[in-house]
Amino acid sequence: MNTEKKLLILKIIGISLAGINMLVSILTLIYKYQLKHSKNKKKV
Question: What's this model's pTM, rounded to 2 decimal places?
Fold first, then answer.
């Protein structure tokens, strides 16, 4: 394998990992937000 192909694959892997990290952080934010709201509803 030549270096250009290796770099391209590494870039693709890096981009996909960054995308997965973003998705996970967004999902955790939504989850925490929903937890807060469900607790507030129970109090009222």
Answer: 0.60
Residues 27 and 44: their CA atoms lie apart, in Å, by 26
38 to 14, 25, 28, 41: CA distances (angstroms): 36, 20, 15, 5
3-state secondary structure of 16: helix
Q: Tell me, what amino acid is at 26? A: I
Model confidence pLDDT, tens digit, residues 2-43? 899 999 999 999 999 999 999 999 999 999 999 988 877 766
Domain interval for residue 20: 1-43
Domain count, the chain: 1
Helices (H) and strands (E) in the chain, counts: 1, 0
The pLDDT score that the predictor gives to residue 37 is 85
